Amino acid sequence: MELQDVNVRHRINGSQLFSKDTVYALTGANLTVRAGETVGIVGESGCGKSTLARTIVGLQQPAQGRVLFKGNALWEMSAQQRRVEFGRNVGMIFQDPSTALNRRLPVRLIIRDPLTVHGVGDTAARDARVRELLDLVGLPLSAADALPTQLSGGQRQRVAIARALALNPSLLVADEPTSALDVSVRAQVLNLLLQLKEELHLALVFISHDIQTVRRMSDRIVTMYLGRIVEELPSEHIPQGIRHPYTRALFSATPSIIEEIHPIPLDGPVPSAVHPPSGCPFHPRCWKASAECATSMPPVEVLSRMPMRTVRCFHQLTRPGEAPEESLTG
Q1: Distance from C-alpha of 56 to C-alpha of 25, rounded to nearest angstrom
Q2: Top-level CATH class of 2-89+169-329?
Q3: Domain range list for the chain
Protein backbone atom coordinates (compact mmCIF):
# COMPACT_ATOMS: atom_id res chain seq x y z
CA MET A 1 0.00 0.00 0.00
CA GLU A 2 1.30 3.46 -0.85
CA LEU A 3 -0.07 6.95 -0.26
CA GLN A 4 1.35 9.70 -2.47
CA ASP A 5 0.85 13.32 -1.37
CA VAL A 6 -2.67 12.57 -0.10
CA ASN A 7 -4.91 15.42 1.08
CA VAL A 8 -8.28 14.97 2.81
CA ARG A 9 -10.56 17.88 3.66
CA HIS A 10 -13.95 17.91 5.39
CA ARG A 11 -16.64 20.58 5.23
CA ILE A 12 -18.34 21.35 8.54
CA ASN A 13 -20.79 23.94 9.82
CA GLY A 14 -19.03 27.22 10.50
CA SER A 15 -19.25 29.60 13.40
CA GLN A 16 -21.55 31.90 11.42
CA LEU A 17 -25.10 30.95 10.42
CA PHE A 18 -25.19 29.07 7.09
CA SER A 19 -21.39 29.26 6.81
CA LYS A 20 -19.06 26.34 6.16
CA ASP A 21 -15.53 25.72 7.40
CA THR A 22 -12.88 23.41 5.96
CA VAL A 23 -11.12 20.90 8.20
CA TYR A 24 -7.67 19.99 6.89
CA ALA A 25 -7.79 16.40 8.14
CA LEU A 26 -4.83 15.07 6.14
CA THR A 27 -2.22 17.12 4.30
CA GLY A 28 0.55 15.91 2.03
CA ALA A 29 0.59 12.37 3.45
CA ASN A 30 3.21 10.04 1.98
CA LEU A 31 3.33 6.54 3.40
CA THR A 32 4.34 3.05 2.28
CA VAL A 33 3.26 -0.18 3.98
CA ARG A 34 5.21 -3.20 2.78
CA ALA A 35 4.07 -6.83 2.77
CA GLY A 36 4.33 -8.39 6.22
CA GLU A 37 5.27 -5.08 7.90
CA THR A 38 3.59 -3.52 10.93
CA VAL A 39 3.41 0.28 10.84
CA GLY A 40 2.34 2.03 14.05
CA ILE A 41 0.63 5.43 13.91
CA VAL A 42 0.88 7.74 16.94
CA GLY A 43 -0.21 11.27 17.76
CA GLU A 44 -2.63 13.28 19.89
CA SER A 45 -6.40 13.17 19.39
CA GLY A 46 -7.46 15.00 16.26
CA CYS A 47 -4.11 14.61 14.49
CA GLY A 48 -5.59 12.65 11.57
CA LYS A 49 -4.85 9.03 12.56
CA SER A 50 -8.38 7.74 11.93
CA THR A 51 -8.65 9.73 8.70
CA LEU A 52 -5.43 8.10 7.55
CA ALA A 53 -6.87 4.68 8.42
CA ARG A 54 -10.11 5.36 6.53
CA THR A 55 -8.10 6.54 3.51
CA ILE A 56 -5.98 3.38 3.52
CA VAL A 57 -9.01 1.07 3.51
CA GLY A 58 -10.89 3.09 0.87
CA LEU A 59 -13.61 4.51 3.11
CA GLN A 60 -12.35 8.06 2.45
CA GLN A 61 -11.55 9.35 -1.04
CA PRO A 62 -8.77 11.97 -1.02
CA ALA A 63 -9.35 15.44 -2.39
CA GLN A 64 -5.86 15.22 -3.89
CA GLY A 65 -3.12 12.64 -4.19
CA ARG A 66 -3.09 8.94 -5.03
CA VAL A 67 -3.67 5.74 -3.07
CA LEU A 68 -1.90 2.74 -4.61
CA PHE A 69 -2.47 -0.91 -3.77
CA LYS A 70 0.03 -3.33 -5.30
CA GLY A 71 0.92 -0.57 -7.76
CA ASN A 72 -2.66 0.11 -8.90
CA ALA A 73 -4.35 3.46 -8.22
CA LEU A 74 -7.39 2.79 -6.04
CA TRP A 75 -9.58 5.66 -7.19
CA GLU A 76 -8.76 5.12 -10.87
CA MET A 77 -10.31 1.64 -10.69
CA SER A 78 -13.93 0.97 -11.49
CA ALA A 79 -16.24 0.24 -8.54
CA GLN A 80 -16.19 -3.45 -9.49
CA GLN A 81 -12.37 -3.51 -9.60
CA ARG A 82 -12.16 -1.82 -6.21
CA ARG A 83 -14.54 -4.36 -4.73
CA VAL A 84 -12.71 -7.41 -6.10
CA GLU A 85 -9.04 -6.37 -6.32
CA PHE A 86 -8.95 -4.11 -3.27
CA GLY A 87 -11.93 -4.75 -0.99
CA ARG A 88 -11.16 -8.44 -0.62
CA ASN A 89 -7.53 -7.77 0.27
CA VAL A 90 -7.92 -5.13 2.98
CA GLY A 91 -9.61 -5.58 6.37
CA MET A 92 -10.31 -3.13 9.18
CA ILE A 93 -10.84 -3.49 12.92
CA PHE A 94 -12.76 -0.52 14.30
CA GLN A 95 -12.26 1.17 17.65
CA ASP A 96 -15.38 0.09 19.52
CA PRO A 97 -16.74 -3.43 18.91
CA SER A 98 -20.00 -2.45 20.64
CA THR A 99 -20.87 -0.11 17.78
CA ALA A 100 -18.95 -1.87 14.98
CA LEU A 101 -21.04 -5.04 15.24
CA ASN A 102 -24.75 -5.31 14.44
CA ARG A 103 -26.23 -6.17 17.82
CA ARG A 104 -29.31 -7.75 16.20
CA LEU A 105 -27.38 -10.40 14.27
CA PRO A 106 -25.83 -13.58 15.68
CA VAL A 107 -22.07 -13.86 15.49
CA ARG A 108 -22.12 -16.44 12.69
CA LEU A 109 -23.96 -14.01 10.37
CA ILE A 110 -21.67 -11.12 11.31
CA ILE A 111 -18.57 -13.12 10.42
CA ARG A 112 -20.19 -14.66 7.34
CA ASP A 113 -21.34 -11.30 5.94
CA PRO A 114 -18.13 -10.48 3.96
CA LEU A 115 -18.24 -13.95 2.40
CA THR A 116 -21.85 -13.42 1.37
CA VAL A 117 -21.25 -9.94 -0.03
CA HIS A 118 -18.31 -11.12 -2.15
CA GLY A 119 -20.02 -14.37 -3.19
CA VAL A 120 -17.34 -16.63 -1.72
CA GLY A 121 -18.38 -20.31 -1.67
CA ASP A 122 -21.78 -21.81 -1.02
CA THR A 123 -23.65 -21.86 2.30
CA ALA A 124 -21.83 -24.93 3.58
CA ALA A 125 -18.42 -23.50 2.69
CA ARG A 126 -19.26 -20.21 4.39
CA ASP A 127 -20.40 -21.96 7.56
CA ALA A 128 -17.16 -23.97 7.56
CA ARG A 129 -15.17 -20.77 7.18
CA VAL A 130 -17.05 -19.22 10.13
CA ARG A 131 -16.09 -22.19 12.31
CA GLU A 132 -12.48 -21.89 11.15
CA LEU A 133 -12.37 -18.18 11.97
CA LEU A 134 -13.90 -18.68 15.43
CA ASP A 135 -11.18 -21.20 16.19
CA LEU A 136 -8.53 -18.89 14.74
CA VAL A 137 -9.42 -16.04 17.11
CA GLY A 138 -9.88 -18.29 20.12
CA LEU A 139 -13.68 -18.30 20.45
CA PRO A 140 -15.74 -21.45 21.17
CA LEU A 141 -18.11 -22.69 18.46
CA SER A 142 -21.00 -21.96 20.81
CA ALA A 143 -20.32 -18.25 20.28
CA ALA A 144 -21.63 -18.56 16.72
CA ASP A 145 -25.25 -18.36 17.86
CA ALA A 146 -24.71 -15.61 20.44
CA LEU A 147 -25.64 -11.97 19.94
CA PRO A 148 -22.87 -9.38 20.45
CA THR A 149 -24.63 -8.11 23.60
CA GLN A 150 -24.22 -11.57 25.14
CA LEU A 151 -20.43 -11.45 24.79
CA SER A 152 -17.75 -9.65 26.77
CA GLY A 153 -15.84 -6.71 25.28
CA GLY A 154 -12.82 -8.88 24.52
CA GLN A 155 -14.98 -11.52 22.85
CA ARG A 156 -16.73 -8.89 20.73
CA GLN A 157 -13.37 -7.58 19.55
CA ARG A 158 -12.35 -11.14 18.63
CA VAL A 159 -15.52 -11.35 16.54
CA ALA A 160 -14.56 -8.07 14.84
CA ILE A 161 -11.09 -9.48 14.11
CA ALA A 162 -12.61 -12.69 12.71
CA ARG A 163 -14.86 -10.65 10.41
CA ALA A 164 -11.89 -8.56 9.22
CA LEU A 165 -9.98 -11.76 8.39
CA ALA A 166 -12.87 -13.55 6.66
CA LEU A 167 -11.63 -12.87 3.11
CA ASN A 168 -7.94 -13.61 3.84
CA PRO A 169 -6.75 -10.00 3.43
CA SER A 170 -3.09 -9.16 2.93
CA LEU A 171 -3.43 -5.86 4.83
CA LEU A 172 -5.21 -5.29 8.15
CA VAL A 173 -5.85 -1.83 9.63
CA ALA A 174 -6.50 -1.73 13.40
CA ASP A 175 -7.82 1.65 14.57
CA GLU A 176 -7.50 1.84 18.37
CA PRO A 177 -8.49 -1.85 18.66
CA THR A 178 -8.13 -2.02 22.46
CA SER A 179 -9.18 1.46 23.63
CA ALA A 180 -12.73 0.31 24.51
CA LEU A 181 -11.54 -2.78 26.39
CA ASP A 182 -10.71 -3.39 30.03
CA VAL A 183 -7.03 -3.44 30.86
CA SER A 184 -7.27 -7.13 31.76
CA VAL A 185 -8.22 -8.15 28.20
CA ARG A 186 -6.13 -5.69 26.19
CA ALA A 187 -3.02 -7.86 26.37
CA GLN A 188 -5.01 -10.88 25.14
CA VAL A 189 -6.25 -9.01 22.06
CA LEU A 190 -2.80 -7.55 21.32
CA ASN A 191 -1.14 -10.94 21.63
CA LEU A 192 -3.80 -12.37 19.31
CA LEU A 193 -3.03 -9.72 16.68
CA LEU A 194 0.70 -10.46 16.91
CA GLN A 195 0.04 -14.18 16.59
CA LEU A 196 -2.27 -13.74 13.59
CA LYS A 197 0.17 -11.40 11.89
CA GLU A 198 2.90 -14.04 12.04
CA GLU A 199 0.65 -16.99 11.13
CA LEU A 200 -1.08 -15.24 8.21
CA HIS A 201 1.87 -13.05 7.07
CA LEU A 202 -0.27 -9.92 7.31
CA ALA A 203 0.76 -6.36 6.78
CA LEU A 204 -0.66 -4.38 9.72
CA VAL A 205 -1.35 -0.70 10.31
CA PHE A 206 -1.76 -0.28 14.06
CA ILE A 207 -3.19 2.96 15.50
CA SER A 208 -3.25 3.68 19.23
CA HIS A 209 -2.86 6.35 21.89
CA ASP A 210 -0.83 3.85 23.92
CA ILE A 211 2.60 4.72 22.62
CA GLN A 212 4.47 1.92 24.36
CA THR A 213 2.01 -0.61 22.91
CA VAL A 214 2.55 0.80 19.41
CA ARG A 215 6.28 0.56 19.95
CA ARG A 216 6.00 -3.08 20.99
CA MET A 217 3.67 -4.04 18.14
CA SER A 218 5.34 -2.19 15.26
CA ASP A 219 8.33 -2.49 12.99
CA ARG A 220 8.11 1.21 12.14
CA ILE A 221 6.56 4.20 13.93
CA VAL A 222 4.85 7.09 12.13
CA THR A 223 4.18 10.29 14.09
CA MET A 224 1.34 12.58 13.01
CA TYR A 225 0.61 16.15 14.04
CA LEU A 226 -2.36 18.21 12.84
CA GLY A 227 -2.94 16.09 9.74
CA ARG A 228 0.70 15.79 8.72
CA ILE A 229 3.22 12.98 9.00
CA VAL A 230 6.17 14.62 10.74
CA GLU A 231 8.45 11.63 11.34
CA GLU A 232 8.82 7.92 10.68
CA LEU A 233 11.52 5.65 12.04
CA PRO A 234 12.08 2.01 13.04
CA SER A 235 10.74 1.22 16.49
CA GLU A 236 14.14 -0.19 17.45
CA HIS A 237 15.61 3.32 17.01
CA ILE A 238 13.36 4.73 19.75
CA PRO A 239 14.15 6.74 21.81
CA GLN A 240 17.77 7.34 20.77
CA GLY A 241 17.06 7.91 17.07
CA ILE A 242 14.16 10.37 17.39
CA ARG A 243 14.76 13.55 15.38
CA HIS A 244 11.48 15.49 15.64
CA PRO A 245 10.75 17.48 18.85
CA TYR A 246 7.10 16.38 18.85
CA THR A 247 7.98 12.68 18.70
CA ARG A 248 10.48 13.25 21.52
CA ALA A 249 7.78 14.90 23.63
CA LEU A 250 5.31 12.08 23.00
CA PHE A 251 7.71 9.33 24.04
CA SER A 252 9.06 11.33 26.97
CA ALA A 253 5.58 11.25 28.52
CA THR A 254 5.30 7.45 28.62
CA PRO A 255 6.40 5.66 31.80
CA SER A 256 9.15 3.06 31.65
CA ILE A 257 10.82 0.82 34.22
CA ILE A 258 13.82 0.33 31.94
CA GLU A 259 14.70 3.81 30.66
CA GLU A 260 15.01 7.05 32.61
CA ILE A 261 12.13 9.39 31.73
CA HIS A 262 12.24 13.19 31.60
CA PRO A 263 8.74 14.35 30.57
CA ILE A 264 8.70 17.28 28.16
CA PRO A 265 5.68 19.55 28.68
CA LEU A 266 4.00 20.99 25.60
CA ASP A 267 2.51 24.41 26.29
CA GLY A 268 -0.90 25.24 24.88
CA PRO A 269 -3.59 23.21 23.12
CA VAL A 270 -3.32 21.54 19.73
CA PRO A 271 -4.03 24.24 17.08
CA SER A 272 -7.25 24.15 15.08
CA ALA A 273 -7.35 21.97 11.98
CA VAL A 274 -9.75 24.56 10.52
CA HIS A 275 -7.26 27.39 10.91
CA PRO A 276 -3.84 25.70 11.09
CA PRO A 277 -0.80 27.83 11.92
CA SER A 278 1.41 29.14 9.16
CA GLY A 279 4.67 27.33 8.50
CA CYS A 280 5.31 24.25 10.60
CA PRO A 281 2.06 23.41 12.45
CA PHE A 282 4.01 22.42 15.57
CA HIS A 283 5.96 25.69 15.90
CA PRO A 284 3.58 27.36 18.47
CA ARG A 285 4.35 24.56 20.96
CA CYS A 286 7.94 23.69 19.97
CA TRP A 287 10.88 24.63 22.19
CA LYS A 288 13.26 24.69 19.19
CA ALA A 289 11.08 26.86 16.93
CA SER A 290 12.59 29.84 15.12
CA ALA A 291 11.20 32.60 12.91
CA GLU A 292 11.73 30.33 9.90
CA CYS A 293 9.41 27.70 11.42
CA ALA A 294 6.58 30.24 11.62
CA THR A 295 6.80 31.22 7.97
CA SER A 296 7.93 28.12 6.04
CA MET A 297 6.85 24.47 5.98
CA PRO A 298 9.85 22.19 6.50
CA PRO A 299 10.39 19.75 3.63
CA VAL A 300 10.37 16.00 4.19
CA GLU A 301 13.94 14.79 4.56
CA VAL A 302 14.61 11.13 3.81
CA LEU A 303 17.34 10.08 6.24
CA SER A 304 17.43 6.49 4.97
CA ARG A 305 15.31 4.15 2.87
CA MET A 306 16.38 0.78 4.30
CA PRO A 307 15.13 1.08 6.93
CA MET A 308 12.82 3.96 6.06
CA ARG A 309 13.50 7.08 8.15
CA THR A 310 11.99 10.49 7.35
CA VAL A 311 11.54 13.71 9.29
CA ARG A 312 9.92 17.09 8.61
CA CYS A 313 11.78 19.63 10.77
CA PHE A 314 14.19 22.56 10.35
CA HIS A 315 15.80 21.95 13.76
CA GLN A 316 16.21 18.21 14.11
CA LEU A 317 17.33 16.70 17.39
CA THR A 318 20.86 15.39 17.06
CA ARG A 319 21.68 14.14 20.57
CA PRO A 320 19.97 11.16 22.25
CA GLY A 321 17.60 12.45 24.89
CA GLU A 322 17.87 16.08 23.72
CA ALA A 323 15.16 18.13 25.45
CA PRO A 324 14.46 21.62 26.82
CA GLU A 325 16.60 22.59 29.79
CA GLU A 326 13.58 23.08 32.02
CA SER A 327 12.41 19.50 31.44
CA LEU A 328 15.81 18.15 32.46
CA THR A 329 16.10 20.21 35.64
CA GLY A 330 12.47 20.27 36.75
Answers
A1: 14
A2: alpha beta
A3: 2-89+169-329
